Amino acid sequence: MMEPKKLYRVRQGRKLCGVCRGVAEYLNLDVTVVRVLWVVATLCWSIGFWAYLICAIALPDKPEQKEGNG
Q1: pLDDT score, position 40
Q2: Residue 46: pLDDT above 90?
Q3: For the chain, what is the HEC assignment?
Q4: What is the mean pLDDT of residues 28-43?
């Protein structure tokens, strides 16, 4: 049975707090698209700043995945 999707901050490849990468993984989008949209939201309406800040505080870090079968 598949686990439900969860929204996390992703440490690997992050620029600031990993929020955009986590949202991109959750929505199955390119992280660059998410980052551009977030910057536009921040510059035009400032809601992007507050949303990022809230997500950076509220979202847990994505657990590290172990490689291999063991």
Answers
A1: 93
A2: no
A3: CCCCCCCCECCCCCCCCCHHHHHHHHHCCCHHHHHHHHHHHHHHHCHHHHHHHHHHHHCCECCCCCCCCC
A4: 92
